[in-house]
Amino acid sequence: MKQIKTIFKALIILIFVSACTENDNLDFLDTIPVPSNISSVFEITQDNTGSVTITPSADGAISFDVYFGDATAEPTNIEQGKNVKHTYAEGTYDVKLVAYNSKGDTAEATQSLIVSFKAPQNLVVTLENDAAKSKQVNILAEADFATMYEFYSGETGVTQPVASGNIGETINYQYQTPGTYDVKVVAKGGAIATTEYTESFEVTEILAPIESAKTPVNRNATDVISIYSEAYDNVAGTDTFPDWGQGGQGSSWAEFDLNGDKMLQYINISYQGIQFGAPQDVSSMEFIHLDVWTADAPRLETSLISASNGEKPVWSDLTKDAWTSIDIPISEFTSQGLTVADIHQLKFVGDSFAAGNGAGGTVFIDNVYFYKAPSGGVSTQVVQDFEGTVPTFTSFGDIAAIEVVTNPDATGANTTANVAKMVKTSGSQVWAGAFFDVATPLDVTNYKTMSIKTWSPKSGATVRFKIENSADNTQFVEVDATTSTTNAWEELTFDISNASPSITYDRVVIFFDFGNAGDDSVYYYDEINLVNNSGGSNPPLIFQDFEGTAPAFTSFGDIAAIEVISNPDATGVNTTANVAKMVKTSGSQVWAGAFFDVATPLDVNTYKKVSIKTWSPKSGATVRFKIENSADNTQFVEVDATTSSVNAWEELTFDISSASSSITYDRIVIFFDFGNAGDDSVYYYDELALTN
Predict the structure, then answer these.
(1) Sequence ranges of the domains in the chain
(2) CA distances in angstroms from 406 to 66, 205, 509, 563, listed in the order given
(3) N or C: which end of the chain has fewer CB within 10 A?
(4) Where is the PKD/Chitinase domain (predicted)?
(5) Same topology for domains 2-115 and 121-203, yes or no?
(6) If 0-12 CB within 10 Å is exposed, 13-18 middle and 19+ buried, where does residue 236 land?
(7) CA dihedral 409, 414, 416, 419 (to 10 degrees)
């Protein structure tokens, strides 16, 4: 019987694949995952018969083999969504489930089943409000001689019980309304008698965010006008709570602090708003952005208010109990006739107030700013500007301690308030200098240059700049530059392109007048930045280069496992140390390939292309590249490119402009020589980057 079932499954899969082959469309096969989250629910009759209903479930499964764990030799096969009944004698059994997907891949799980004809004893129930989901209660029941339990919520007008589960496993139930309820848990075994537990339990509602909104991306100062955000410099003198008389409507406000992350809180909002420190010309900006969290407001109106010709509104739908990221095109305001060259206020209106029902609903708002697409190909990231907490300096070579002082010459290229001061003491070593460590290692993957503003009493002095690993100072990059001015600020740049992404660079070292003994000369430095000047509307952003921890690959279509190896041909366009290796095994499927997931979803809003460096033994081979949502593989974008080199590295580009910014793309899939069966050819790939 088991052989017949196996043959039947194989025939179904063969017919399925054959039908698709006729239409030359096998793309769906690589998206079929192995079954996961396998479990079963046991329901036992309370009549001393030992009759148990087993209902298996799993993500990605179409059928199950159920092994009952007793003397029954053969399993029973059932479809997803169906159940099977089996009669047990008293005892404890390990019930095994083997789940099948539509390709025939399997995964299995085992659960313990207790069958007893005694009434459940020692019932212990744990009830708790979920820490992350509002009005959700998590229930755990444990008891001797019990198989399952039922949960009665205490609500009126709701069919009871509202949930059930296996004894010893947690279930959950979400209430519609917070409050105190008389709940009941009934533990059941194979006996007629059951055991109950009752309690008056208060169901609570989460009324404030428990995690911060997503941190905004780095932007050039000319590309953003920030009103309220810790990511950018805000318009000075801005009043985020002008009230405008709304306190009398029952509305109030506060600045909410979530573990140090501050955000605006408008309580029982009628209408509230923000008064800018000065009118802002946002005509060159493309969007206004804000992040909004609410537990009870369905919509929010955002109005731009001009100093000269009034205000215009735009409504946005909100997702309850979550952050809603809102980007409103400025054109939605100008199309209503609004002048945006003198915006001096923002107004937020609650849905309840707009409907004439008075103040109601509370919103938390963060990251309010206007922005546009980057205006140039230069992106910078500040490493240290000496305006905040002073770093811990270590000086060496017999010079005085480094100080952070008021800028002694706030003119020209540097008008900031504070700078670092180094005195190269008379008689100090030719290699005298100082260093400090940074909390976040330098991003040498996306930034290949560093800039420093320096002030020197000498022209022609060598400034040596060095980045190194604080845990191993034999791992470093050092570069020299030469001062060209006297007693004035200038910006020096240092090429760090030979820094290895596999090394942690968290120490910054600087030497002034390197090679000469100290003579009491005084030097200043400031504004230490990482710089990406690779050009384009946005500098390329590498999201995988295989130099650090290797990703977890999943290969499919009968090819060998993917490996990260030393670059076998470190020439031409790719001289990096490590690359990924794919062998398209002889006889493997035409759609064979591999995928890995990324921790940070791809930014398809900013970037519209992906570039990959590839090495192929064939010219004219199709490389299919695909990005998808790991939680829903029906959401994807796939693009083909063709190799043009043989046994050499080249860079292929894939247009992903059709990707939706509302979808999470966190899975990367690649197929080499797509459409042809495997022939043991070896392919390599590396340097996957978002670009434009």
Answers:
(1) 2-115, 121-203, 221-371, 379-532, 541-691
(2) 76, 50, 21, 54
(3) N
(4) 39-118, 122-206
(5) yes
(6) exposed
(7) -70
